[in-house]
Design goal:
4 strands; globular
Length: 155
């Protein structure tokens, strides 16, 4: 399986390299996707995230990651999974507030968003537990600690 990541940068500042987004997406998708696929990851400022969050979720303000799954009515090659929109300032702020390594937080949000593209959700408690457990498992393959543990807590 080949994963193609179309990285769109609509942010004036430093962001991780394309190769890292590719690595994180491949890790997230390797267990559930068996065919070649493509997704877009758009890195945005606060304003664009807030506008999209309001338009599509009815929520005020920016958010860390928005997922827009694509389900084509006709078979396509490669399979188009959808789009992720990640708000860079929110990612940076959360990593700082939560005392997490910035690169690890980026990886977590890409994995989290990719799982949403595959249909995973966290609305119900049992869904959240399943999704979080899968995220932790994927992040461990990337040598990243459980992001749901409080700092100082061990697994």
């Amino acid at each position: 399986m080949t994963v193609t990541v179309d990285l769109q940068i609509a942010y004036e500042g430093q962001v991780p390299e394309q190769a890292l987004f590719q690595k994180w997406a491949e890790a997230a998708l390797q267990e559930d996707v068996t065919e070649d696929c493509e997704l877009s990851i758009r890195l945005v400022e606060v304003e664009e995230s807030a506008e999209l969050n309001n338009t599509y979720r009815g929520k005020t303000g920016p958010t860390n990651v928005l997922s827009f799954p694509f389900d084509s009515p006709i078979p396509m090659e490669p399979k188009l999974l959808g789009d992720l929109v990640i708000c860079v300032p929110v990612v940076e702020k959360e990593a700082l507030e939560q005392a997490k390594q910035l690169e690890h937080h980026w990886a977590h949000l890409v994995v989290h968003g990719c799982l949403h593209l595959l249909g995973y959700d966290h609305i119900e408690d049992d869904q959240a537990e399943e999704m979080e457990a899968f995220e932790v498992e994927i992040l461990q393959t990337l040598a990243i600690d459980n992001p749901y543990l409080d700092q100082g807590e061990t697994a």
